[in-house]
Amino acid sequence: MGYSKKFKYRKPTKSISGVIPLAVVIKPMKCPHGTCLYCPTLDVPQSYTPKSPAIMRAAQLNYDAFKQTKARLKAFQIMKHSTDKIELIIMGGTFLAYPKQYQYEFIKACYDALNDKKSRDLKEAKKFNEKAKHRVVALCIETRPDYCSDRDIRRMLEFGCTRVELGVQAVDNRIYRKVCRGHGVKEVVDATKRLKNAGFKIGYHIMPGLPGSNLKKDVKLFKKLFSDENFKPDQLKIYPTQVIKGSELEKLYWNGKYKPYDKEQLIRLLIEFKKIVPRYCRIMRVMREIPPDFLVAGTIRIDLRREIQKRFSKCKCIRCREIGFALLNKKEVKKGLKLKITKYRASKGKEFFVEFVNRQDIIFGLIRLRIPDKSRVMFVRELHIYGPALRLGKKLMKTAEKIARKYRCKRIIVISGVGVREYYKELGYKFKDPYMVKP
Ligand code: SF4
Questions:
Q1: 340 C-alpha to center of ligand 1: Å?
Q2: Segments making up each domain of the chain, as ranges
Q3: 214 vs 235: CA distance, rounded Å
C-alpha cells in the first residue's frame, strides 16, 4: 500500500499518518487567571521552559509566525518529509486570551507562509490555501475550558481550526482549587459539549499526580472520563505531574509538602489507564519532555511508553492499533478489512465511531460522527485515513451518509481543514462558511 518508502525517512513517527505536524509558538504572555501551581513562569510562553527545542527555535525568530512556519517547512523538507498535508499546531499559553488582533494576524501569517504569498486578510489567506502546495488539513489550538465560549468557538472556526486541546488536568473541584486552576468541572463539561456540538475533535490534557490526588484517586478520575457522558474526549495527552523550576510547586517540593510519582508508580498507573481507555480515543502522548536543567523532580524517562507497551500490549486506543505503527514494529499485517461501528452517548448527543479494521483489529481508517440531541444534523468531526488508500475515505463518507439517513438527519456538516475542502467538494459537499455541507 505504499507505506514502506515512508519509513526510510528520518524521524518516521512524525509523519506516520501522512500529515506533518507543524507547531508554531505564540509570544510569551501571562495567563489571565493567574498561574497554576505546577506551571513554570519563566521568560518564555507560559508553561514552557527556555530549553525546549520548539521554544528555542521560536525565540530565535522572535515568535514571528511567518518566519517560524517557513523555517519548520524547510526543516521538514530537509528531512525529506512530504509537506503537502500540514497539521498546524498553535502552541504556547492560552492563545484565545491574547488580544484578538494578535490572534487573527498570527493565524493569517501561518497561512501566508504556507501559501508562499501575502494575502489581504485571513479570509483570502484561507482561500489561497485551498489550492496551495502546503495545505492545512487540520489546525489545532490549545485552550483552557473557561476560554471556550460560543464567541471563542466562532473565532476558532474562522481560523480554520478543526481540533481543540483542552487543559483539563483532573476533573475534580478540590484539586482545581488546590492547584489554583481558576475554573471548575462545570467549565470542562460546558466546553466539551460546546466544542462537540460545533463539530470539533477534542483532546484533553490530563495530569495524574497533582497535589490533592493519589494513585487510587487518579484511576477513579480516569474512569470517570469515559463512564460519565459529560467528558469522553477523542484524544488524550497524559502529562504526569513533574516539579519544574520556576513553579509554585517547586516550593512545596522543597518544603517536603509534595512528592511526584516515581517511575514504577507511573508505569503501573499508566497501565491501569490503558486498561480503561476505549477504542474511540487516541492516547497521543504520555509524559512531557522537560529539559533536565529545568526538572526538579519527577520522571524523566520519555520512552516510558515503550516500557509500558512491553508490560501491557492489549491497549485498545487508536494509536496502539494504527497500521503505521504495526508496520513500524514490523508486525505482519493481515488483509481483509471490515467496518466496525461503536455507538455511544456523549455530551448530550449520539456519537458513532466508525473504523475500518482487519481481523487483528489494526485500524486503516476512521470517521467520527455526532448527532446532537434534538437536532436533525449530523457532524463529521473527523475523517482519517492511514496511508494513501483514498477509497476508504469515500467508503467511510458513504457509511456516514447511511447513518445520517437512518437517523433522519437533514444535513451532514463536515468540519474540514481549509486544505481538505476540495476533497469534500469532489464528494458533493458545498462550502457553507465555515463548514462543508451536504443535504
Ligand atoms: S492555564 Fe496552562 S499555561 Fe496558564 S498557568 Fe495554567 S498551566 Fe500554565
A1: 38
A2: 18-161, 165-183+199-321, 338-438
A3: 23
Does the global pTM surpass 0.70? Answer: yes
Amino acid at 274: K
Residue nearest to atom 5 of ligand 1 (CA): 35
**Probe target for ligand 1 pocket from 29, 30, 38, 39, with the most ligand atoms within 8 Å of CB:** 39
How far apart, in whole angstroms, are the C-alpha atoms of residue 383 and residue 112? 26
Q: How far apart are CA 235 and CA 261, in angstroms?
A: 23
Distance 34 CA to ligand 1 centre (A): 8
67 C-alpha vs ligand 1 centroid, how far in Å?
26
Digitized pLDDT (tens) for each residue of the chain, 439 residues in all: 333 333 333 343 444 456 899 999 999 998 888 999 999 888 888 888 888 889 999 999 999 999 999 999 999 999 989 899 999 999 988 999 999 999 999 999 999 999 999 999 999 999 999 999 999 999 999 999 999 999 999 999 999 999 999 999 999 999 999 999 999 999 999 999 999 999 999 999 999 999 999 999 999 999 999 999 999 999 999 999 999 998 999 999 999 999 999 999 999 999 999 999 999 999 998 888 888 888 998 887 667 878 888 899 889 999 999 988 788 777 788 888 999 999 999 999 999 999 999 999 999 999 999 999 999 999 999 999 886 666 889 999 999 999 999 999 999 999 999 999 999 999 999 999 999 999 9
Query: What spacing in Å lies between the alpha carbon of 195 and ligand 1's midpoint?
Result: 20
CA of 205 to the centre of ligand 1 (A): 12
Bond into 21 cis (ω within 30) = no
Contacts of 337 (CB under 8 A, 6+ apart): 356, 357, 358, 364, 392
CATH code matching the domain that covers 338-438, chosen among 3.40.630.30, 3.40.50.170, 3.40.190.80, 3.40.50.720: 3.40.630.30
Ligand 1: lining residues by beta carbon, under 6 Å: 31, 35-36, 39, 46-47, 93-94, 144, 167
> From the alpha carbon of 39, which atom of ligand 1 is closest?
8
